[in-house]
Amino acid sequence: MSWHRTSSQWFRLPAGALWDVLADLSRWPEWNPAIATASLDGELAEGAAGRYAPSNRIVGALHRRTAPDFTVTRVEPGRRLALRQPQPGGGQDVMWTLDERDGGTQLTQHVVVDGPLGQQFGLTAGEPLVRGFASQCARLYRLASQDSAAGTEAAHDAASDRPLTVLAGGSGTLGTLLAADLLCSGYDVAVLTRSFTPSPFRQIIWDGRSHGDWSEELGAQERLNVVNLAGLSLDRPGTEENLALLRETRVEPTRALVTASQGWARPVERWVQQSAVGIYGDSPEPMDESTPPPADAPGLASVVRSWEAAFDGAAATRSVVLRTGVILKRDAAILSRLTTPARLGAGGHLGTGAQWFSWIHAADWVRIARAALGLPLSAGEGTLELPDGVVNATSPQPVQNRELMAHIREFVGVPVGIPAPAGLLRAVAGALRTNPDLALDSIRALPGVLKAAGFEFLYPQLAAAFREMAE
């Protein structure tokens, strides 16, 4: 039984610039933090032997002592490189493919682990290689654009006369995806952060609360876009203390940015403000952007109301508020929350199973954010102008919980699951450090603005999203 993962990213760089980095296997650790060291005996050629060590201290030490050399199995200069690492009863294949298109290069990474222990070795050896693929690509872009004359020229041409896009909350899942996508597309990107950390992105220090050097630096930009994604994960017990913390980590950074923008010499060109469909509260009724959110819904809905209210007064020429559904991607936190019990046979519906689940695939969210920034949706696609105001960033086909859990069971390969009554779910939520309302509230948000604008989803149906996550 095999384990496999496929990931892709488009770069505004020629294939040769990327190949120069990929083909030097000693540089693998420079762009993939999961690798501590890598080397090749002699020249790069089919049949050549080499070795690498994972950066995980325990796995790396075991690998150094027990793993045989890998073998280069395929070399097509400027196009494809593959290697195979033997493992007990099978092996791990890693392949990178470069395809020049749309004025740049599409990189596709395939990692396959086969053999009777394929699934087990996939989790311990394969998964670390593919984790954080977006950040890996951002590092690879930096290296390729700096090291190659053609890459430097392409990166300079792409970034010229374009605004700086600064992201608050840029170190989170969505922030990293968007920042990496923009950087690899040649745009100038910076991340607001409370402390410097190893990162492929330019970092600007702020405290998320008060005026400082960060405001002066952003105010001095000739052209500026802002993407505000700041805020702790909503997935934590719904205590009053946690609700206050969730509110604070959203409202304070938003107010700081809004207040700063009011003092800048030029307005922000495009402002993308994150929000959540939780503002609609608990209801089975369909709700699009024309539906007024309830003014008195408690809990998470009250947090989101305060979040959106803090955005009032932002000095921006164009602005979009993205009321985002639950993000689905391969390493999304919700998948871990749901797949772990499902693998143990507890993958039945939650509560009544009739509550609605509003979701969106991460790839579509990135395309919506790019549209809000006035950019092409992706390489090879055109632009799509969104109106100012609220946009529901959700799939056009929300599903009920019973359907969601059926897909979860199929995803993990366990055909049956024990349901979890609402009372039981609420009783164990504290121990699991989660908020049961995220699973039990019914939110049926519809993307009316996106539909009117002609936005075409890559993953409009939940089945298609799960197929992609299983690849």
UniProtKB/TrEMBL annotation:
Residue stretches making up the NAD-dependent epimerase/dehydratase domain: 167-374
Entry-linked InterPro entries: DUF1731, Epimerase_deHydtase, NAD(P)-bd_dom_sf, Polyketide_cyclase/dehydratase, START-like_dom_sf
Signal peptide: none
Residue stretches making up the DUF1731 domain: 420-468
One Pfam family this sequence matches: Epimerase
Protein name: DUF1731 domain-containing protein
Source organism of the structure: Sinomonas cellulolyticus
